Amino acid sequence: MRLLPFIVATTVFIALQGALLPAYPLYKPWYLFGAICVLIGGVMFQQVSITTSDAYLYGFQVLLGVGIGCYLQAGFAVILGVIEMKDMAYGVTFILFAQLLGITAGLSIGGAVFTNTALSSLRPLLPDVPDDQIQNALSGAAGGFLKAASEETRQAVLRVIMASINKAYVSPPRIAFNNY
Q1: 76 and 97 fall within a common domain
Q2: Are 63 and 2 within one domain?
Q3: Is residue 108 domain-shared with residue 75, that is, in the same domain?
Q4: What is the pLDDT of residue 176?
Q5: Minimal CA–CA distance to 64: which of 95, 48, 43, 78?
Q6: Terminal Cα-to-Cα distance of the chain (whole angstroms)
Q7: Same domain, yes or no: 122 and 167
Q8: Biggest CA-to-CA distance, the chain
Q9: pTM score > 0.85 for this model?
């Protein structure tokens, strides 16, 4: 239910882009506007904390949905407009492969960054809890995991989880400037 603003915005803009692209065959503005929306939304999601309001989250979900909807399905129409008909099957296959590869790689890398950073940060907070139980809690499989913990521990765990989610959006390289 909490993803509904994202899903609705994405669906509406996919339909809008699909209806307008044949009438106005300029596809680059759709990609540019979509990329700007996704960039702004991604930066704002990277700033989310445990005190962020629902309105803020829903607003930036809509922004991300608008951006993604501007270009998610546009590649199929664009590739068919720029290649010869004899190569149509290759073009559509390439776009489908690229989309699936991008989604798979992005989710895999983001999930690995989240899990590894959260697990390494939660170990000192929860020294008596086995790693597999922490991993189950991070994947959502242990709903009552923190019910027995103190409020202070719960807040610390939530802060670690939020910091790990934020690192999944962007993880800047660690550069030591001490020697310069």
Answers
A1: no
A2: yes
A3: no
A4: 43
A5: 43
A6: 50
A7: yes
A8: 66
A9: no
Q: Write the CB contacts of 21 (distance below 8 Å, at least 6 apart in sequence).
A: 27, 30, 74, 77
One-letter amino acid of 121: S
Q: Where are the beta strands (DSSP E) in the chain?
A: none
**Tokens coding 173:** 């390289």
Please give the Cα distance from 124 to 18 (Å, whole number).
51
Phi-psi region at 175: left, alpha or beta (left = phi > 0; alpha = psi -120 to 50): beta
Domain count, the chain: 2
pLDDT of the residue at 127: 85
Are 74 and 120 within one domain? no
pLDDT (tens, 9 = 90+) of the chain, 180 residues, equals 689 999 999 999 999 999 998 888 888 999 999 999 999 998 888 888 888 899 999 999 999 999 999 999 998 888 888 899 999 999 999 999 999 999 899 889 988 889 899 999 998 888 888 888 888 888 876 666 677 778 888 888 888 988 888 888 765 544 444 443
The residue written with tokens 């929860």 in the block is: 126
Q: Are 94 and 79 in contact (CB under 8 A)?
A: yes
Query: CA 32, CA 28: separation in Å to the nearest integer?
Result: 6
Angle at 77 between CA 71 and CA 78, to 5 degrees: 75
- Residue partners of 105: CB distance under 8 A and separation at least 6: none
Structural domain span for residue 73: 1-82
Q: d(Cα 180, Cα 178) in Å, to the nearest integer?
A: 6
